[in-house]
Amino acid sequence: MIDNSTNILDSTAPLLLGSILNWGFYGGLCVQTYYYYFAFPKDRRVLKALVYGLLLIETSQSVIIARDLFTTFVTGFGHVVELIETQFIWLSTPVMTGIVSSIVQIFFAHRIHVISGSKKAGTFIVLLALMQGSSAIICGMQVHSADDSRKIYSKALASTTIWLIGSAVCDNVIAIFMVYFLSRRATGIKATQTLVTKLTRLTIETGLLTATIALIDATLFLALPTRNLHVAPALILGKLYSNTLVANLNSRPVIPSSHNDTFIDEILSCSSGNPHVDDIQRIQFPVINSSSRDEDTTVAISIEREI
After folding, report:
1. In this predicted structure, which of 48-62, 83-97, 129-143 has the lowest mean pLDDT?
2. What is the DSSP letter of 266?
3. TM spans, by residue (predicted)?
4. Which of 64, 215, 219, 284 is the S-S candidate for 298 at Cβ 3.0 to 4.6 Å?
């Protein structure tokens, strides 16, 4: 039974801090999804389903976390037993985070397959993603059966370790493969090279972020098994993955049309046809001639869909 202020602090502070950060990242995800909705209305249905599906999962997770927070600090205030019960954290953290991270990693596996044309690289990442995702779900089931936060370490040690370490390894592999294959696609065209550099930098930053948080979570869980410090990073890990995916989609160039408010986002989209490079589209925009404002000329812009 928890009988001192230190244990109470360990049980409440990570939950409170992690929940606040979770809702903060949820707000960021909502803003990114809002931007995606207006900036890329012509995206393929599968991409739209992916973005809105992740938002639905993350909304459900944040609601469940808020419910646990309310139970611990409001309806269960003063009851020590509420501090050690796992409540619904088994669902909101390992299960939902495992599902979200697997989806995001498989998405990047597809991108790598499109960029490289290699099935082996994509398949390897998919296997890593499924391994860590399955371990996360198993971890959730074991936490649920424990029903006591003090028993999590003994019941879910192996599954938690495989989940978090596997997730970090998969993120690092994705970052390495993306950088390697993108660097090989140098075209010599300044505009295209700028986009490739931007995507490379974003991939490294987001991949290192999710991998670092997963490793911090694993380290706290393994090094301090009698304390709940690992709960804080665990509560935000899923949100980081969702934000990573939507941020990557939103990083594509948006070209406003001079005729209407539609946007063109043909660069860096996931191709559905040729796994290497899709067709080249020519889009014409009217431009006012500086010498005569009554005459219109057109500029043909070639946009290559590579990813």
Report:
1. 83-97
2. -
3. 20-37, 49-67, 87-109, 121-143, 163-182, 202-224
4. 284
